[in-house]
């Protein structure tokens, strides 16, 4: 390959915080201590802090995490039902002023119907994304530092203002989802759309219009030898019939298009008696057995890099790694991603 060949750029890398739904606060506190340091050492930008009604307040987790690291950037899930957009903008501005630190924002609509019902939200799927667009627009306008007057279907502000946030500390905006409504919302907001990746051969199906950014959340188990990688994967995620049953129930309860899509893919793979498809690196058992919400890529560095190249070629600019069990998980995943970047041509 000639030295003049243009290559893909390294995607922005985040890890994922473990769930705080369990009652073992001591364990979660230990995880909260170590993950920001792991991310710093492995050259990850930060970690996703996701949210639902059962979890700790993501803002509390975010503020604790930045105290443990000089550069860690929390990617905070923002659900409109939990707080007014003014409160989000004021929190971002306060962290920027007091800590000189940045947070990124992942706008979500909530995929569990029971969570929405418990908070009295009766908007349908598409209208929740309409509300999300207004919400993000208000947050962005407030962070610019000027007084904001806004009259929308869901939010009204009259000369509202928060502290101005320097441009280098303003958050990156992300929107999670795969549905047409989510795609429209991400475009309207000017946000990076985050989704769960399809089969590597189908990566182009998730790409948006030329020039639009998208990212994916995925687990990666990669080693020099594919047998070593698969041995780790099988040990970490053994067959679990009970978990499969739970996942089927969750899929029926969820309004999320990605939940339904991955569930259908997992069922098809199970009927075919395969772990994945295509080059054999794409693995759905962790999702199918309710151990995590995302697919995995498993194999040698070269095999995983080969799969990743297809996503990079389709425009992936952000990768969010599943919850790491050790610092080494982040290091090995980054090695595979770097190998994919080195081999992948610049996408159009």
TrEMBL record:
<keyword id="KW-0285">Flavoprotein</keyword>
<feature type="domain" description="Luciferase-like">
    <location>
        <begin position="40"/>
        <end position="317"/>
    </location>
</feature>
<dbReference type="Pfam" id="PF00296">
    <property type="entry name" value="Bac_luciferase"/>
</dbReference>
<keyword id="KW-0560">Oxidoreductase</keyword>
<protein>
    <submittedName>
        <fullName>Oxidoreductase</fullName>
    </submittedName>
</protein>
<dbReference type="GO" id="GO:0046306">
    <property type="term" value="P:alkanesulfonate catabolic process"/>
</dbReference>
<dbReference type="InterPro" id="IPR011251">
    <property type="entry name" value="Luciferase-like_dom"/>
</dbReference>
<dbReference type="InterPro" id="IPR036661">
    <property type="entry name" value="Luciferase-like_sf"/>
</dbReference>
<dbReference type="InterPro" id="IPR050172">
    <property type="entry name" value="SsuD_RutA_monooxygenase"/>
</dbReference>
<keyword id="KW-0503">Monooxygenase</keyword>
<keyword id="KW-0288">FMN</keyword>
<dbReference type="GO" id="GO:0008726">
    <property type="term" value="F:alkanesulfonate monooxygenase activity"/>
</dbReference>
């Amino acid at each position: 390959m000639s030295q003049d060949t243009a290559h893909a750029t390294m995607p922005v890398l985040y890890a994922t915080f473990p769930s705080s739904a369990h009652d073992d606060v001591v364990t979660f506190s230990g995880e909260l201590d170590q993950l920001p340091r792991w991310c710093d050492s492995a050259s990850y930008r930060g970690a996703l802090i996701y949210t639902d009604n059962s979890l700790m307040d993501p803002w509390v987790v975010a503020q604790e995490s930045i105290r443990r690291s000089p550069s860690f950037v929390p990617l905070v899930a923002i659900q409109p039902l939990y707080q007014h957009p003014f409160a989000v903008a004021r929190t971002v501005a306060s962290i920027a002023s007091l800590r000189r630190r940045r947070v990124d924002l992942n706008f979500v609509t909530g995929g569990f119907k029971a969570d929405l019902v418990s908070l009295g939200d009766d908007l349908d799927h598409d209208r929740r994304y309409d509300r999300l667009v207004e919400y993000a627009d208000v947050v962005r306008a407030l962070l610019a530092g000027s007084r904001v007057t806004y009259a929308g279907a869901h939010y009204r502000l009259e000369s509202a203002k928060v502290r101005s946030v320097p441009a280098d500390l303003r958050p990156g905006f992300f929107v999670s989802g795969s549905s047409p409504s989510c795609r429209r919302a991400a475009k309207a907001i000017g946000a990076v759309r985050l989704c769960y990746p399809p089969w590597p051969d189908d990566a182009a199906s998730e790409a948006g219009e030329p020039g639009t950014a998208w990212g994916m959340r995925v687990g990666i188990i990669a080693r020099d030898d594919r047998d070593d990688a698969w041995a780790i994967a099988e040990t970490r995620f053994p067959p679990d019939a009970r978990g499969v049953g739970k996942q089927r129930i969750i899929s029926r309860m969820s309004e999320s298009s990605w939940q339904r899509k991955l569930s259908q893919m997992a069922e098809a793979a199970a009927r075919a008696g395969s772990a994945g498809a295509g080059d054999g690196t794409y693995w759905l058992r962790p999702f199918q057995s309710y151990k995590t919400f995302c697919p995995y890529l498993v194999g040698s560095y070269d095999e995983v890099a080969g799969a990743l190249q297809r996503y990079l070629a389709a425009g992936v600019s952000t990768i969010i790694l599943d919850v790491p069990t050790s610092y080494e998980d982040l290091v090995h995943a980054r090695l595979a991603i770097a190998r994919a970047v080195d081999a992948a041509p610049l996408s159009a």
